[in-house]
Amino acid sequence: MGVLNSNKEISTNMIRCGESFHVKLSLTAAPDIVNNPTDIVLVLDRSGSMSGTPLANLKLGAKKFVEIIDESTDGSENGQIGNGSRIGIVSFSSTATQDTALITSVLELDNAIDNLTAGGQTNHADAFTQAIDLFDMTSSNAKVIIMFTDGVTTAGSPPTPIAELAKAQGIIIYCIGLVGDTGLDVNSLNDWSSDPDSAYVAVTPDDAELEELFEELAENISKPGATNIEITDTLNSCFKINNIVEVSKGTANILNDTTIKWEMDQLGTTSSEGATLEFSVSHVGTCTGIVKVNSNIEYSDEEGNIVSFADPSINVECNEPICVEACPTSVDVTIRGCDDTVEYDAGDIYLDSLGRILELEANIKNVCPNRRVALAVIVTEVDDNGIEYKRGIKMMVIPAHTASTCRDVKIKCIRFVLPEVLDVNYNHNSICNNRKFKVRFISHYIDNEFDCCDDFM
After folding, report:
1. Which of 9, 87, 93, 313 could form a disulfide with 120 if both were Cys (CB 3.0 to 4.6 A apart)?
2. 3-class SS of residue 218
3. What is the rounded distance in angstroms from the CA atom of residue 47 to the CA atom of residue 55?
4. CA 321/CA 410 separation, integer angstroms
5. Is the pTM above the cut of 0.90?
6. In the 8-state DSSP scheme, what is residue 103?
7. How many domains are there within the chain?
8. Residue 277 CB: number of other CB atoms within 10 A?
9. CB atoms within 10 A of CB 232
């Protein structure tokens, strides 16, 4: 079957400047269907939401799948699936039906696919049950279920326990999802499919891509397992590889700050097999905003499998949210060219601009999104004997930020006026004495999720 699936994932979609995240590469391979006879059940969603072009494109994709398996098992499109492999069709809406047994006739399979009509709800549990019942568990053939669906479960019992039973019996499960009118629960597809999810689940928002998805899966199933595998992953220069977190198969080596090489002698040559490599990466460059993680990734093996990996991007946020206390309001005074003296009544002057000004900054750590913070700043002056004298307190509300994760919030320009007459070592003959102060910060969330009773308003 060759390389069945490949993927590249990142552990988060946003980081701050200089922060780290994990990168995970996944690869799955399986033996050649010619040398490894395989029973395949196509489980096809024909619920009401599939009406129109979605069902038409599903039929094209399913028939293309059968066509490729026909050719790959005996070297020609002769209308018969060869070398002991078979395909069966199960379709489902409110209930599921076995539209064919496990058979080799391409004509019968195509007729069953063409006869599908859309209508009803979505019963995944019955679909899995009917698919499992098609298999002869005493047969030595490999067993594969390919589940296609465009919606969430709306009828029947929970499907996950039945999918788990199938996997426990050695059945490999692939899931193809179409984001249809009724939505799609991708987490459920991940639960039902074989592991790793990235190798056995494919999702598209466009039904026009269904034929391509089925074709790609059929071609991969038709290839042999992979040997002498080499994967070289080179990152964008804005990132640096820190260390290897885990490699499930083969060996991995960090070649330089941005390049890692993963090698395996073989994968999936005797049975379907998956492998993963996970490594840690840090942001080190000046780039910000949406940044591509990869510069390049290369794959090769002895069998010539064509493999492509996802190309993820990450949002690098380098701008700190800054709250600034407003400057005092100014008063405009104009002196005409020939005026020797000017009298001007500036109105009320409050005690916020007399004497020395102490300006403070603080960085509040790990403030969660959408929560305001109450901040108090207390200033005392300390004399030569260590005795403290109150010099002021300010209390303020820090607006909530809207980042997707907790982050630091910098508070700037917190000003205190310190008149000279309050200097604990005040000397009428000097206004430049050294003065010692202590500053204390008290902060706490204002917003919380607590209600004292059910009818609290």
Report:
1. 93
2. helix
3. 9
4. 6
5. no
6. B
7. 3
8. 25
9. 15
**pLDDT, tens digit (0-9, with 9 covering 90-100), for 37-95:** 889 999 999 999 899 999 999 999 999 999 988 887 877 788 899 888 999 999 999 99
The single-letter code of the amino acid at 363 is N
Domain that holds residue 25: 2-29+225-317
Write b or e for each residue in 164-201: b if 16 or more Cβ atoms lie within 10 A of its Cβ, otherwise e. Answer: eebeeeebbbbbbbbebebebeeebbbebbbebbbbbb
Residue pLDDT, tens place only, 290-323? 999 999 999 998 878 888 898 999 999 887 666 6
Close Cβ partners of 100 (under 8 Å, ≥ 6 residues apart): 87, 88, 89, 108, 109, 112
Same structural domain, 124 and 85: yes
* Residue 443: half-sphere exposure toward Cβ, Cα within 13 Å: 18
* Sign of the torsion angle spanned by Cα atoms 209, 213, 216, 218: negative
Question: Which stretch of 93-107, 209-223, 300-314, 424-438 has the lowest confidence by average pLDDT?
Answer: 424-438
What does residue 135 show for φ and ψ, rounded to 5 degrees?
A: -80, 145
- Does residue 238 share a domain with residue 109? no
Look-up of token digits 């060759």: 2
Q: Can you tell me whether residue 58 is helix, strand or coil? A: helix
DSSP letter, residue 253: E
Q: What angle do CA 326, 331, 336 make, to 5 degrees?
A: 150
Indicate the DSSP class of residue 327.
P
- The domain boundary, picked from 188, 221, 254, lies at 221
Contact of 220 with 4, CB cutoff 8 Å: yes
* Residues in CB range of 15: below 8 A, 6 or more apart: 21, 283, 314, 315, 316, 317
Chain centroid to Cα 352, Å, comes to 50
